[in-house]
Design goal:
Two copies of one chain form a homodimer.
Chain A: H1 2-16, E1 22-24, E2 31-33, E3 39-49, H2 61-78, E4 82-92, H3 98-114, E5 118-126, E6 132-142, E7 157-160, H4 166-176, H5 195-206, H6 212-221, E8 226-229, H7 234-245, E9 248-252, H8 260-269, H9 273-279, E10 286-290, H10 295-306, E11 311-317, E12 322-326, E13 329-332
Parallel strand pairs in A: 4-5, 9-12
Antiparallel strand pairs in A: 1-2, 3-6, 4-6, 7-10, 7-11, 8-10, 9-11, 12-13
Helix pairs in contact in A: 1-3, 2-3, 2-6, 4-5, 4-8, 5-8, 6-10
Chain lengths: 342, 342
């Protein structure tokens, strides 16, 4: 079965694209690829474990494949890099069907293909109890032109590419109504939330949009040096930036990008929209810092790609804490985000 | 604790070597490395799952770290490549101590360091029940100069770098005497095998020697194009070569490198040494094919690195099967090796 599964993935991956940079793909001791001249390599890897990061009660295999790709693509985007080659490690538990793997592989490859990434290797092993998925992504970036977490400076403004907290709300809804994809059925469920709102929030969790093109554009102009993707909630992700840059940050509650969809579900979920926006993980929006001098130019670049103006949510300050500023006062939220590692 | 564990690994990895090719290490969205000019990249990745690939009853963390590195280094060696950067994905189950991770990380880094490999990234997540470890290794090879599974030709001779079946015997012994490392205690155990024999076989399983230098030397001279490392037993590994090269192979029972140590344990284990040598996994010896014309020159190159003459164990033939030739006749052993994926 190992050989069957590898052959299946190999077939689907091979059909996908003819990538002249892939000299040896799946099926040898190593993959061999030809990097472009004058580039640095960027590498990222993420592991998703069943019942920790996803649950097959609500995650269909096609979306799981797409998300496995997206979480890594998002990291490549946060470096401003061009993702090129992917490697998939599967630990397969008993009871998984051919149909599952067919759908998973197609989902994975569909997301990778959008960014010209070829699946060229990996490893498939058995696991006694739980499915586990690791994807590793290698990409390229012009020499010295990557974004990092480490160059934010006091008075830089903090920007965000989209609404926050929606993926966390989507996950809560999925967990609440575990019948697979049932929230999509009918005009309104027993929960009283419209189909459109449900779909929006649930999609943000199942199928987040990695901000690869945006990250590349920000890096290209050289006016942004610091970025991170929002995977653990900005309270934690901004704390990472602060630590690496040796600065503090203040976040403005009134500027937080909270969608109407999020507000509508907050009553049902019993969680304040602002809390979800600050601490909810997996939105995979891009967060970056920019000097006042470059602000309007960078805003234009981002708006052109996003189709709307990015959100200015705070600024970098002296210190080492992440502080939330509200009309009632200030609150330390450093590392208060969601962490997968329990 | 995720942050604590990452910080620990980061500290140990950072202390290891100052590698000027590492521009961004552990602690950003991606690692950034500078590849050498005029090289192709080789990439390999392997996953080890607790209770499938190892058992903490007999695997101490330091050796587990070394083996996690070795299985990937072995793949890099089988391509004739120069491994350079490593990425570690950990799925950590409850109940694992700081001391375990300290020892594991030191073991891992000790093996990587022997080949100048820097640990520059990864991912750490929690798992409900079982420890799972994936290592990904990126290396370099001179443009077009890698070894593959796909260039064996009829009449090529098949060579092997060392004794086969010892790792499988070592694993059987470890499973039989699960008291941690107890086989090393005393001059002779209840099992009647000498300490030296036990240590040799058990070490072959716990701490296999990846044939990186040998693979590089074989690739450098251009007289060898086809190689594979013995991870699933030569019955299966040779079948991979046959499939990729569109050839068959015959293996000579009388030439099989079976050590005296292996013979001594065979009675206790109740498995014939030849069967262990053909189907036992994880010896991580290098297997290669060479034309008659280049045979003696390549033999010399290998002997210089190994300190003994490599073993000529068979030859490539027309067809698509792996055939064992014995004094009693011939037997099809295609894909009869050990497979981790159950």
């Amino acid at each position: 079965m190992e050989r069957d599964l590898i052959a299946k993935i190999q077939r689907l991956a091979g059909a996908q694209i003819k990538d002249p940079s892939v000299l040896v793909g799946i099926g040898d001791d190593c993959a061999v690829v030809a990097p472009s001249p004058d580039r640095h390599l960027i590498i990222t890897t993420d592991t998703l474990v069943e019942s920790i990061h996803f649950d097959l009660d609500y995650f269909d295999p096609w979306h799981l494949g797409r998300k496995t790709a997206a979480v890594n693509l998002s990291d490549a985007g946060a470096m401003g890099g061009n993702p090129r080659w992917a490697f998939l490690n599967l630990a397969v538990r008993p009871g998984m069907t051919d149909r599952f793997w067919d759908s998973f592989s197609k989902g994975l490859i569909s997301r990778l293909s959008e960014y010209g990434v070829s699946l060229v290797g990996g490893d498939t092993v058995s696991a006694p109890d739980r499915l586990s998925l690791s994807l590793t992504l290698i990409g390229e970036v012009k020499k010295g032109k990557w974004l990092s977490r480490g160059h934010a400076q006091p008075d830089d403004l903090i920007y965000c590419s989209g609404n926050l907290g929606e993926a966390a709300a989507g996950l809560e809804l999925l967990r609440k109504y575990k019948e697979k994809r049932s929230p999509f059925k009918g005009q309104k469920g027993a929960h009283g939330i419209s189909r459109a709102v449900l779909k929006r929030l649930v999609s943000k969790h199942l199928d987040p949009e990695p901000r690869v093109t945006l990250g590349q554009a920000l890096a290209a102009k050289g006016m942004v040096q610091t970025a991170i993707d929002v995977s653990d909630g900005i309270a934690t992700d901004l704390a990472h930036v602060c630590k690496n840059s040796k600065v503090g940050a203040e976040v403005w509650a009134r500027e937080m990008p909270v969608s109407r969809a999020l507000k509508k579900t907050s009553g049902i979920l019993g969680i304040l929209p602002l809390d979800l926006a600050l601490t909810g993980g997996e939105d995979f929006e891009l967060l970056w810092t920019v000097s006042e001098k470059n602000e309007s130019e960078v805003q234009k670049i981002a708006a052109k790609i996003l189709g709307y103006r990015p959100f200015r949510i705070g600024k970098i300050v002296q210190g080492d804490r992440v502080i939330l500023k509200t009309s009632q006062g200030a609150k330390d939220i450093t590392y208060q985000g969601y962490e997968h590692y329990i």
